[in-house]
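Morning run. Coffee first, then this:
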Amino acid sequence: MLREIVVESDISWYYLCKVGQHRDKEIYHLNRERKDMILTAEICFKYETHCHTSPVSKCAKASVEETVHFYKSIGYDGIFVTNHFLDGNINLASVNLPYRDQIDYYFADYEEAAALGEKIGLKVFPGVELSYKGTDFLIYGLDKEWYKANPDILRMTKTEELQYMMEMGAFIIQAHPYREAHYIDHIRLFPRSVHAVEIINSNQAAEANVMAALYARQYGLMITCGSDNHWAGDVFHHLQKKGLDPTIAGMCSETPIQNVQDYINMVKEGQMRPFLQDAEGNVFEIGTDLQCDADADVGIH
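And here it is:
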């Protein structure tokens, strides 16, 4: 079975080839060539690396319950709740609280999601999305107690904050680095202050994702993908309404992750692979040749 991606590149065309099944869903690989594609039976465990919930993220339109049940319903094995931090688009209800209470408020959505996920069989992990004038960073590996013990991060420059977090063991990803919006006056890159780049963000136009892949490739940074889902089950409708490809993105692995450190280690070791999933549940795994090929469009159209 072969399906063409309608994408032109200065160098080559890319094609989708069915390579197996995952829980009754077809898995595809992106390949350069039409011929000699080998069908394999791969099983993957799927994870959302970037999503927002209400009420903590002011911009989120879906509750914790809606988000957790949505990802369980479409066959995901786990999610990272990455709400906007105190420096970003957090709900104003937390603004006048003492710092430690703000941190409690911030992690409340994650804790609710983790409790619900345990009941229904979906792993839920904590993450943080930091912001600087519309430039965002996904932080993994630091827990609530660490943030409570480090109020000084809010007084640091963003570079100082990121470097300090890295020293403390955080894994840092620059999210949607080429995002454009009315509130972003220019694009800012932090290649010396991050470990990885989010090369596919479902909420971004294809050209922004292509540039993100180029950025990662040129600086030798690791890659991740995520949906940046603010709408839970309404995500496909909202992406289509925005004129974007209605697919969500994430990372998959051949073995399940049990905690945040597992995820960090497996990304570093190349054991987590990007994928896309459409509204029908079809899973499109992105081949490693595409991950580092910045001359090709990294979306499916």
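The radius of gyration is 18 Å. Good start to the day.
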